[in-house]
């Protein structure tokens, strides 16, 4: 009967919409990242910057402040060696962050960077950063971790002051440090 | 509803066909039924049970908030109450009530013998008791039930969630599957089973609003399913959709959730628009003013609902252009909504109105929903929202659109169609008493929340500053009144089922539509031969 047939066609089509929208929910994840990057919102910075050095813009200075926060339940001591530096756009600058594991267990940590104001994020290039990898610290171990960055010459003139904030997460459960520790021991 | 199963009425002139039989006997009738009236009845009873359960949780909340300080429950349990109240009312009370009304009324309104997919219809109903059984059981588990608010923002609902969150996730999956199947069924019924001559633009508005609602459901319930699936994967399979530690982003959760959540609020109100558009003309004894504009307004609201979601997120740090876009898009919704309110008012204008209970609820719907709409406009103003966000002003706003909006719409529909369902008139005096107690109680409960909200009282907190004490006590008294009154509604419905003045086929002299051409109570099988629609 044509009525049953057209119902069947309709149900198939509507089910495809359902499947499509389920996929769309997951597609929102990359769309979200692309949008954040395209519009330079959310303060998310890109990965390692490899476009080479820029010439220094001596005509202005930008105040770069550093902020280090522990995520909930993270117990490491974590902070920058200086609260802020003055840089010329185009200059390559290095800042050291110190992390210390006060516990009696090896732990893995991941730092997540964020730049404020968010429109400056696209002009803040990191050529080297401890946030590109995870840190494994043995009990009582202290390390200095470098971040090397360039503030782009094209940074909008009204931004005179930007903040680089790191949040340090305990990801020991996700990436147990044991495997990596044996790996480093095995290497030499 | 025993009165609807009288097989003596079956057939209505076609009793010779062999498939014209009454329902089976006993419990299995309800378990196995594929009859749209039986399933509609089960949906409505289930919804009412959930309404009372979610309502009792609201009573716990209001009892704790009766006075400042902690008296009755611990904050942990209070959080579970606010969360479960929201979840049960949204997914357990309002949505199934409208699906129940759709099951009962859409085939009768378009002249169809049943829903297009009766077996799926049975399955989508029976998923609901399973889903809510699972959800409610979490309250008795170690660590308690969901305590992260009905919006279940990550990481509260992932990293910091109680163990029972997995049951919550699967319950949401089941509800989602049930809603999607219900929606597909409604679309298939409306598009394929209309009586000859029933063109789309001749359909009653309740059918139109449900058609649009069904498309909204099909579009956004899968996104909700995706959202909770991502939570599940974050919790159990080591992904990091919403966990910043692994490169994800909790703000993403809010985008995904509200992409579902905003259309969801229209899912809960559009069918009420349709019901009220049937009831007001019936008691104003005038045809609905602006039928075509009503259809287009409903479609516009549905479309706009997809591009306003971030107005729930003005304070998370979205860029200025985003705030402006979502602010203006949100305000744009006031235009089609205004068209609807204008049309309802114009329908009543110079009508010979009488105020039976369905009409009382419908008029209150128009007035109070408009108040809720206006507070929505205030919330839409992005810079002002920074003050209102997460305060009781928001609570006042959405209760004004949901209680006198969705719930009053359901009450109006129930009173309007009860004679058709049961074959008896309900007790008009008690119905009016139910209306006035609900009306006064609801306004007493929710109107003061505007004031405490503007003064800065945060939502979802079991304690509050002394300065809010008086208004909160008034709110609580109103809430107790509203809550207790709903037991009266239960009594009225049972009384109506058990007896009362016999209802004519068309008990309301101004009513229009095919449902009034069948006898009251509606026979078990109707429109086995499609009616002619001129």
From TrEMBL, chain A:
Parts of the chain that traverse the membrane: 12-32
Protein keywords: Copper, Membrane, Signal-anchor, Transmembrane, Transmembrane helix
Membrane topology type: Single-pass type II membrane protein
Annotated compartments: Cell inner membrane
Claim: Transmembrane helix is one of the keywords in the record: yes
Keyword Transmembrane: yes
InterPro entries noted in UniProt: CtaG/Cox11_dom_sf, Cyt_c_oxidase_assmbl_CtaG
Pfam families: CtaG_Cox11 (PF04442)
SUPFAM superfamilies xref list: Ctag/Cox11
PANTHER family in the cross-refs: CYTOCHROME C OXIDASE ASSEMBLY PROTEIN COX11, MITOCHONDRIAL-RELATED, CYTOCHROME C OXIDASE ASSEMBLY PROTEIN COX11-RELATED
Protein family membership: Belongs to the COX11/CtaG family.
Reported function: Exerts its effect at some terminal stage of cytochrome c oxidase synthesis, probably by being involved in the insertion of the copper B into subunit I.
Name of protein: Cytochrome c oxidase assembly protein CtaG
UniProtKB/TrEMBL annotation, chain B:
A Pfam family per the record: COX1
UniProt-annotated location(s): Cell membrane; Membrane
UniProt keywords, alphabetically: Cell membrane, Copper, Electron transport, Heme, Iron, Membrane, Metal-binding, Respiratory chain, Translocase, Transmembrane, Transmembrane helix, Transport
Residues annotated as domain Cytochrome oxidase subunit I profile: 30-534
Signal peptide span: none
GO cellular component, one term: respiratory chain complex IV
The keyword Transport appears for this protein: yes
Pathway(s) of this molecule: Energy metabolism; oxidative phosphorylation
Membrane-spanning segments: 42-63, 83-104, 125-145, 165-193, 205-233, 265-283, 295-314, 326-346, 358-382, 394-418, 439-457, 477-497
Catalytic activity: 4 Fe(II)-[cytochrome c] + O2 + 8 H(+)(in) = 4 Fe(III)-[cytochrome c] + 2 H2O + 4 H(+)(out)
GO terms for biological process, alphabetical: aerobic respiration; electron transport coupled proton transport; respiratory electron transport chain
Membrane topology: Multi-pass membrane protein
EC top class, as a word: translocase
Function, in words: Cytochrome c oxidase is the component of the respiratory chain that catalyzes the reduction of oxygen to water. Subunits 1-3 form the functional core of the enzyme complex. CO I is the catalytic subunit of the enzyme. Electrons originating in cytochrome c are transferred via the copper A center of subunit 2 and heme A of subunit 1 to the bimetallic center formed by heme A3 and copper B.
Xref: NCBIfam families: CtaD_CoxA
Name of the molecule in the record: Cytochrome c oxidase subunit 1
């Amino acid at each position: 009967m044509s009525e049953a047939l057209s119902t069947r066609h309709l149900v198939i089509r509507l089910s495809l919409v359902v499947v499509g929208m389920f996929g769309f929910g997951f597609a929102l994840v990359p769309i979200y990242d692309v949008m954040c990057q395209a519009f330079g919102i959310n303060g998310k910075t890109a990965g390692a910057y490899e476009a080479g050095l820029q010439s220094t813009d001596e005509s202005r200075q930008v105040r770069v402040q550093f902020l280090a926060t522990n995520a909930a339940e993270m117990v490491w001591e974590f902070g920058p060696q200086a609260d802020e530096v003055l840089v010329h756009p185009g200059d390559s600058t290095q800042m050291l962050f110190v992390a210390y594991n006060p516990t009696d267990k090896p732990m893995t940590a991941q730092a997540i960077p964020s730049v404020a104001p968010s429109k400056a994020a696209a002009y803040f290039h990191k050529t080297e950063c401890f946030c590109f990898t995870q840190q494994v610290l043995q009990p009582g171990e202290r390390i200095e971790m470098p971040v090397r960055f360039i503030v782009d010459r094209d940074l909008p003139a009204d931004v005179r002051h930007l903040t680089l904030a790191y949040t340090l997460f305990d990801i020991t459960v996700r990436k147990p440090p044991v495997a990596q520790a044996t790996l480093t021991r095995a290497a030499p | 509803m025993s009165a609807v199963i009288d097989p003596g009425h079956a057939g209505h002139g076609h009793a010779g066909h062999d498939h014209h039989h009454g329902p089976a006997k006993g419990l299995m009738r309800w378990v196995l039924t594929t009859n749209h009236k039986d399933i509609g009845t089960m949906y409505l009873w289930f919804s009412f049970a959930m309404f009372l359960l979610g309502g009792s949780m609201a009573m716990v909340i209001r009892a704790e908030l009766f006075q400042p300080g902690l008296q009755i429950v611990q904050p942990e349990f209070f959080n579970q109450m606010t969360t479960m109240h929201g979840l049960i009312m949204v997914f357990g009370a309002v949505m199934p009530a409208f699906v129940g009304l759709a099951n009962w009324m859409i085939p009768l309104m378009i002249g169809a013998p049943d829903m297009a997919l009766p077996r799926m219809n049975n399955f989508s109903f029976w998923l609901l008791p399973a889903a809510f059984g699972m959800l409610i059981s979490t309250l008795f588990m170690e660590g308690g039930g969901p305590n992260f608010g009905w919006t279940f923002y990550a990481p509260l609902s992932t990293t910091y969630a109680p163990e029972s969150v997995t049951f919550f996730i699967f319950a949401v999956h089941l509800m989602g599957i049930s809603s999607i199947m219900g929606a597909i069924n409604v679309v298939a019924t409306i598009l394929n089973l209309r009586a000859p001559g029933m063109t789309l633009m001749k359909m009653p508005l309740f059918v139109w609003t449900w058609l649009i609602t069904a498309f909204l459901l099909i579009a956004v319930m899968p996104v909700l399913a995706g959202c909770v699936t991502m939570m599940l994967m974050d919790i159990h399979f080591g992904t990091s959709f919403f966990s910043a530690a692994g490169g994800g982003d909790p703000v993403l959760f809010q985008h995904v959730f509200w992409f579902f959540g905003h259309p969801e609020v229209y899912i809960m109100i559009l069918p009420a628009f349709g019901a009220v558009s049937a009831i007001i003309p019936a008691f104003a004894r005038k045809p609905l003013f602006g039928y075509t504009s009503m259809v287009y307004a409903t479609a516009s609201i549905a479309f706009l609902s997809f591009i306003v979601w971030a107005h729930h997120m003005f304070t998370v740090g979205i860029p200025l252009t985003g705030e402006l876009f979502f602010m203006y898009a949100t305000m744009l919704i006031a235009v089609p909504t205004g068209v609807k309110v204008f049309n309802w008012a114009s329908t009543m204008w110079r009508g010979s109105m009488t105020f039976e209970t369905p009409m009382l609820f419908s008029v209150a719907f128009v007035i109070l929903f408009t108040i809720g709409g206006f507070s929505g406009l205030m919330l839409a103003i992005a810079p002002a929202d920074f003050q209102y966000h997460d305060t009781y002003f928001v609570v006042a706003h959405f209760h004004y659109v949901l209680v006198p909006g969705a719930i009053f719409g359901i009450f109006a529909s129930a009173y309007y169609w009860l004679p058709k369902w049961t074959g008896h008139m309900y007790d008009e005096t008690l119905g009016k008493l139910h209306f006035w107690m609900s009306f006064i109680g609801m306004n007493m409960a929710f109107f003061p929340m505007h004031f405490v909200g503007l003064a800065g009282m945060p939502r979802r907190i079991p304690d509050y500053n002394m300065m809010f004490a008086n208004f909160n006590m008034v709110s609580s008294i109103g809430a107790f009144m509203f809550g207790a009154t709903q037991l009266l509604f239960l009594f009225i419905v049972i009384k109506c089922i058990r007896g009362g003045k016999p209802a004519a086929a068309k008990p309301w002299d101004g009513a229009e539509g095919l449902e009034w051409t069948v006898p009251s109570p509606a026979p078990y099988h109707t429109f086995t031969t499609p009616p002619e629609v001129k």
